[in-house]
Amino acid sequence: MSEFHDLAELALNREGQSWGNLGYWQTATGYSDACRALARLLGEQAKLDRQSVVFDAGFGCGDQLLLWLDHFRVAQVRGANLSRSQTSYAKARLANAGFPAAAHAIMQGDINDPKVWAAAPNADRPSHVLALDCAYHFPSRVEFFALTRQHLAPLGQLALTDFILSDHHQTHSLAHRLLCWMLDRSHIARANMVDRDHYLRQLQDSGFSDIRIIDISEHVMPGFARFARRVHSENTAAPSGQNTGWPGMLKYRLTGRFLQWAYRRSILRYCVISATKTA
Question: Are 98 and 27 in contact (CB under 8 A)?
Fold first, then answer.
């Protein structure tokens, strides 16, 4: 059965890489480097270190798991991802990289399913829950916040990158109807699109404090749009030799055009968010 989240992004990466986020394009020029830069930024904002026990809520094909382990030297990783194909790929990547325990600690499942969080009852409670460029796809971000609060260790950290509605966006406008049309086709729940004040209240009501919301839109949305425009116009295989073909490239081109439109019209902002579980 086909999946909305599959292995299509492999064709966008250089050989040996399988990233699948929007990227942080402040200095990066290639897709794999930009994706790694966004993951590093998230890890830095989360203040990962050698004592960190990480639960990754949407780990894609596993590149970010390797970053937590290799670059930040975290003590443990586990997590859940909705895609079966990506989870299988990530397990193989971890095992081949010499992290068999981590490969066994990740699973396929819906992040809003409490069973996913309770799958390892004897494991240490996570000190960090991370969601790299995926929380807007969750069935309910509010439920995700509640489950994170429930399972985090005392004073644990939540860190994610996410879309937030601009304060200037008018919900009764034509632009909002176009936004909703795109959200529906991108498997994004409309309820997940809220403004900064609403987002802040959701975190506070879920039991988080010391909340930081940093707008990084200028280094994410236009950069991905430029990349998508270039890769679509070339319509060639990535260095790995794989080719998504016309439908795949069209998907990224449309995503890039949408992000460029949403950025220029100040409809969406892309932010890195961190918060601490209230004692």
Answer: no
The tokens 């796809």 sit on which residue? 137
> Quick one: angle between helices 141-151 and 196-205, nearest 10?
40
Residue 68 CA to residue 50 CA, distance in Å, equals 10
For the stretch 238-253, pLDDT in tens is 444 444 444 556 778 8
H/E run at residue 148: helix 141-151
Q: What is the pLDDT of residues 106-132, one digit of tens each?
A: 999 999 999 999 866 567 899 999 999
Q: What are the structure tokens assigned to 239, written together?
A: 């260095």
Q: Counting Cβ atoms within 10 Å, is residue 190 exposed (0-12), middle (13-18) or buried (19+)? A: exposed
- Cα 239 to the center of its chain, rounded Å: 24
Dihedral sign, Cα of residue 275, residue 94, residue 113, residue 120: negative
Q: How many CB atoms neighbour CB 50 within 10 A?
A: 8
β-strand partners of 212: 274
Phi and psi at 49, nearest 5°, equal -150, -170
Q: How many residues can be counted in the chain?
A: 279
